[in-house]
Each structure stands twice: as structure tokens, then as C-alpha cells.
Specification:
Layout (H helix, E strand, L loop, with lengths): L3 H8 L4 E2 L2 H7 L5 E6 L11 H12 L3 E6 L1 H4 L16 H15 L11 E4 L1 H4 L4 H7 L6 H6 L1 H9 L3 H4 L1 H16 L3 E5 L3 H15 L4 E5 L12 E2 L2 E2 L9 H9 L6 H8 L4 H8 L4 H19 L1 H15 L12 E4 L1 H6 L1 E2 H7 L6 H9 L3 E3 L2 E2 L6 E2 L8 E6 L3 E7 L1
Parallel strand pairs: 2-3, 2-5, 3-4, 5-6, 9-15
Antiparallel strand pairs: 1-6, 7-8, 10-13, 11-12, 11-14, 14-15
Helix pairs in contact: 11-12, 13-16, 13-17, 14-15, 14-16, 16-17, 19-20
Length: 409
């Protein structure tokens, strides 16, 4: 079996590591690694997909992943990668989110027979005695070195409070705790966590005299410089209720040509020779590569049936003889009395979520970018009502590819 370090290298997962040769040798035998996850939402989004995929590769290679839900650090707030203070949640809300996140992770990695484990750092961090923590842990940290870390330097410009300043100590303590209780010797995370991960490795060296490892992933942006997972609708969630599989499929199929090969390597399990072959396609043929990217990513996240339905829906809507029958197309239910009274088109497009504001909807429709049942809407305030329904449905389209189906209850 190929060393997972080589898999990470060839697929583009590695931004920084501690000694690469030592880490490669360490991963020759079964090892335990961990990644921390933010518990401030009840669903992961696409921005979390890269570390999740890394855990999948680790497990496939025979290693044991630990997913750490930051319940304790969530009570403090991680300043890393943020220009403002994160919201602080209650313990009850964090615990609810943690349960939902574990359910989602179970679609990617197996927790059976402790092949992977999920823990909540609130279980140990909330029990710390402050004086003992300062004496036993805090004394190993240099304030000057902490302030030099990227995560703190960025926040110093907008204001870094004392609670957040403790975050590096708490994450370092996590690594030491997992080293002691689970023999965990590798922490992975986004590159904005590099300073925190090194702090943990240094703490273990000082307290235990042992060498442990660190690996960070690139902070992904698209070729247009947009943060991965951000769209006009907001975040792309892994929860099928928040982001339906059809929308998820469309997110991937609409990626820029320049990103297709990179994303195939990171977010699918296709062999790299196939990834490279698809990445070389040009023009109309590249559309096939995008379809494969969309199908494979949707299958991994939502299952084969959902991926098949999303692909079929896209083919129906974008192929000849477009149809509104596809079940995976995003849908909105309206009350019969509402649609009987009718909606001006720009209001319906805004309420349906195809435009963020009514002003945006007016501009879209005024420029001829709005469609009703595949016919262009000519007036932004055109009244849409029950009489416009075909086979009990309305099909709205914004631009070339954003569809929404409206039914009546």
C-alpha cells in the first residue's frame, strides 16, 4: 500500500510539514492523527471538506483518525483566520452541533470498532484548574513568540482580547492530552493553524521529551481568488437540507476550468493518472471533466442515488427538451392563496432565494436574465400567479443555470 504521505503529496494536500522524511517514516506504520473542527454550526460546509478528505485518506491507509470537536475552545473563540471575534456559544448548543457533525462525518469515515473516534475538548478543557494550568502549561509559552504567529498578528490590528489570546495554549494542551491518552503523534489542519499546531508539538517536546508531527493543508481559494465554498447564496453546506444535492452538484460543475484538475485531486478518489488525463481536456471536452467532478463529489457526500438524481436533473434541465420533472431540483412550496393572488416577478425571485435583494432581482430581470417555464420574463414586475403553472409547477431560472421549482400546498 502506498504511504499516505505520498498520496497527500501527489494530490495537493500539503502546504507545510515538520521534518518531511521523519513524517514519511512515521506513516509507514499504523498511526493516530487528529484534526480539530469548529462546532459553531450544525453542519460542515465545503470549506471543511479538505480536512475531512484528509481523514478519509488516513483511514483508508490504515491509520486511526480522531475528529476533535472544539467544544471547549468554542467557548473561548479561535482567532485563527478571523478578523473579528467569533461568536461564543453555550455548552448545550455546542453539544447539539457536535452530534450533528459526527453524523455527517460518518458518511465519510467509519467510527465502528474505534476505527475513528470523535471527542469534544470541552470534556477536558472545562475541568482545568486555572492556577495549575498557568503553572504547568503557561510557563512554557513565550508571549513574544505567540505575538509573532500569523493568527495573532492579523487580529492585533482589529483587537485581540485576552480570552482569544489563550487559544494557542488550549489547542497545544489538546495535542498533549491526545498524545497522553490516545498516543496521537500527528496533528493536521488548515495552514492558518500552523502556529497553534507547532505550539502543541513544542509543548509535548518540553513536557514529554518526544517528537511529534504537524501537517497543514493549503487554504483553498478558487482561481478567481474566492474562498472555497462561498457563492452568491452563501456557504455550500454538506447537509442535504441546507444545500440540496442538486445545488451541491451544480456548485461543483460550475467551477472554473483552471480549478478542475486541482479539485479532482483533492475532492475525489479518482486515480491520479485519470485526474491528470481529465485535467488536460480542452474546450467542450472539459465539460465532461466537470461533470465527473460534480458527480464524484456529490456521490462521496450524499451517496450514489443522490448523485445519480442530481446528474439526471441537470441533464433534463440543460439538455434538449428541458423538463421540470426532475426531483432533485431545488423546490419551494407556496400556499395556494399566495400564488392565487400572484407575485410581481422581482418579488418572487427574491423570496425564492434566486436573488439576494429585490434590487438585484430588478436588475436581473431588467437585463433579460430571468425565466418562467423557460420563457424570458420581459417585465420585472410581471405578475406570476396560479394561471402560469404547468403540470402543477412553476419553473424559475436565474441566468443560465440556477433553477428553482415552485409547487403549491
Amino acid at each position: 500500500m502506498k504511504n499516505v504521505f505520498e498520496i497527500f503529496e501527489e494530490r495537493g494536500f500539503i502546504e507545510q510539514t515538520t521534518d518531511p522524511q521523519l513524517l514519511r517514516e512515521f506513516l509507514e506504520t499504523s498511526a493516530t492523527c487528529y484534526i480539530g473542527f469548529d462546532p459553531t454550526a450544525n453542519s460542515f460546509h465545503v470549506g471543511s471538506l479538505l480536512p475531512i478528505m484528509a481523514l478519509v485518506h488516513m483511514q483508508k491507509a490504515g491509520h486511526r483518525p480522531i475528529a476533535v470537536i472544539g467544544g471547549g475552545t468554542g467557548l473561548v473563540g479561535d482567532p485563527s483566520g478571523k478578523t473579528e471575534t467569533r461568536p461564543i456559544l453555550t455548552r448545550e448548543k455546542i453539544d447539539q452541533n457536535a452530534e450533528a457533525l459526527k453524523k455527517q462525518l460518518s458518511r465519510f469515515i467509519s467510527f465502528d470498532d474505534d476505527a475513528a473516534i470523535m471527542v469534544n475538548n470541552a470534556d477536558w478543557l472545562t475541568r482545568l484548574n486555572y492556577i495549575e494550568f498557568l503553572r504547568d502549561i503557561g510557563r512554557h509559552f513565550s508571549v513574544n513568540r505567540m505575538l509573532a504567529a500569523e493568527s495573532y498578528r492579523v487580529r492585533l490590528e482589529s483587537g485581540l482580547n485576552f480570552i482569544e489570546f489563550n487559544y494557542m495554549l488550549l489547542q497545544a494542551y489538546d495535542y498533549w492530552h491526545l498524545f497522553k491518552t490516545a498516543d496521537c503523534r500527528l496533528q493536521m489542519g488548515g495552514n492558518d493553524q500552523w502556529g497553534n499546531i507547532l505550539a502543541g508539538a513544542d509543548l509535548i517536546r518540553r513536557l514529554e521529551g518526544d517528537v511529534v508531527h504537524a501537517l497543514t493543508f493549503p487554504l483553498l481559494t478558487t482561481s478567481a481568488g474566492i474562498k472555497m465554498g462561498k457563492t452568491h447564496k452563501g456557504a455550500i453546506w454538506l447537509d442535504p437540507v441546507l444545500t440540496p444535492p442538486y445545488d451541491y452538484y451544480q456548485f461543483w460543475i460550475n467551477q472554473a476550468d483552471e480549478d478542475v484538475e486541482r479539485f479532482l485531486g483533492l475532492f475525489t478518489f479518482l486515480p491520479m493518472d485519470e485526474v491528470q488525463r481529465l485535467g488536460k481536456l480542452q474546450g467542450a471536452d472539459l465539460r465532461k471533466a466537470k461533470q465527473i467532478l460534480a458527480y464524484e463529489t456529490t456521490k462521496i457526500c450524499h451517496g450514489e442515488q443522490a448523485a445519480n438524481e442530481a446528474r439526471q436533473a441537470a441533464q433534463e434541465l440543460f439538455g434538449k427538451g428541458a423538463s421540470v420533472s426532475a426531483q432533485s431540483v431545488p423546490a419551494l412550496e407556496l400556499k395556494r392563496d399566495e400564488i392565487t393572488r400572484g407575485f410581481p416577478a422581482y418579488i418572487l425571485f427574491e423570496q425564492a432565494g434566486l436573488c439576494k435583494t429585490r434590487g438585484e432581482a430588478r436588475r436581473l430581470l431588467g437585463q433579460g436574465g430571468g425565466y418562467l417555464n423557460e420563457e424570458r420574463i420581459t417585465d420585472f414586475d410581471q405578475l406570476i400567479s396560479l394561471s402560469d403553472m404547468k403540470d402543477g409547477e412553476l419553473l424559475l431560472r436565474a441566468g443560465k443555470k440556477r433553477y428553482l421549482k415552485i409547487t403549491v400546498v
